[in-house]
Amino acid sequence: GVRQGGLVKPRQRFRAAPRWFARPPAPKPYRGDDRAAIEGVHFVTSDADLQRLVEESRRQGTKLFVEFGAAWCDHCKSMVPKMARLGRQHPRHTFAVADIFHVPQTSKTVVYTPTFWIYSHGVKVDQMVGSDKKNLDDKVWLQLQD
User: Fold this and answer.
1) Percent of the chain having pLDDT more than 90?
2) Nearest-CA neighbor of 86 among 59, 67, 73, 109?
3) CA-CA to 114 of 20 to 30 Å: which in 11, 35, 71, 76?
4) Do residues 61 and 92 lie in contact, with contact meaning Cβ atoms separated by under 8 Å?
5) Do β-strands 42-44 and 2-4 pair in parallel, antiparallel, or remain unpaired?
6) Rounded distance, CA 128 to CA 120, Å?
7) Strand order in 63-69's β-sheet?
8) SS3 23
9) Are 97 and 43 in contact (CB under 8 A)?
């Protein structure tokens, strides 16, 4: 280091990036920009909104598939179009996406994102962790067999 007034000043460890260096692209919003790609999925706005969907599932005797994710999670965002596609294929059931920061009470046991919870008749019956689209297809197929 360089001695300056009795203290050793460390050398600069990193240089500033040159001006021509491209900034990374801004992250995409969790909801996505393409409205057609997200038609068929419900975006949960609060714990009360999610509870309303669970209650609706119980009352109507349908399934509810919820993806818990975060706006900064690229894997979560990549699953939104898949959830929307499934929602369009199975319109009788509800497919929802919940940002963990919008549903803090419900998502306090969610450790990894994305995490999928599956409700049947208002009761949580299954869950899946990860962004494997084939696994999600298989879970949905399995749950819709009864």
Assistant:
1) 63
2) 67
3) 35
4) no
5) unpaired
6) 15
7) 42-44, 94-99, 63-69, 115-120, 123-129
8) coil
9) yes
Judge whether 66 and 117 are in contact, CB under 8 Å: yes
pLDDT for 53-65, tens place per residue?
999 999 999 999 9
The overall average pLDDT reported for the chain is: 84
Per DSSP, 110 falls in state -
Read off the pTM.
0.75
Please write down the HEC assignment for all residues of 83-102. HHHHHHHCCCCEEEEEECCC
How confident is the model over 109-122, as pLDDT tens digits?
999 999 999 999 99
Residue 140's pLDDT is what? 95
Domains of the chain: residue spans and CATH: 34-144 (3.40.30.10)
Residue 115, beta-bridge partner list: 68, 129
Contacts of 117 (CB under 8 A, 6+ apart): 65, 66, 68, 124, 126, 127
pLDDT band at 27 (very low <50, low <70, confident <90, very high): very low
What's the angle, vertex CA 122, arms to CA 116 and CA 123, rounded to 5?
Answer: 65
Q: Which two tokens stand for residue 104?
A: 């803090």
Residues belonging to the chain: 146
